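Annotated sample (chain length 139).
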Amino acid sequence: MRPISAAAIAAIVIVLAGCRSRLEPPPAREVSIWHKVGSWSGRGNIQTETFTSDTGAFRVTWETRNETAPGAGRLYAVFRSGDSGREIMDAVKTQGAGRGVEYVSAERPRWYYLSVDSANVDWAITVDEEIPGQAPPPR
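Output written by the structure step:
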């Protein structure tokens, strides 16, 4: 058997390198970026200051506590139009003490404010706006 020449080895390496499949990098992942719009807390009714939204999509984190009597507490928060005051969508509607996260979306971007109607509980609400983004592909 004859040894393989250096030229033959180089030719084989070049051919094999050309046959190697080229992997496409994975696409970027769609992610949600949450931008804090505001936080409010209190006992009783309030109307927040107006805030703008470019997406109309929100995450509402809420908590009620210190209920005066079992079943007596309620919290109802509504997104309203910052221009006309009309009701756009419910943010939170709950009875008693508790906590939760609600995801809501309106038909379009606009100016908003929250009207909060509560009784017999201390409450806290945080609103974050969802902004679509892309995460780079993993390496």
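Annotation: Helices lie at 6-19.
Annotation: The first helix runs from residue 6 to 19.
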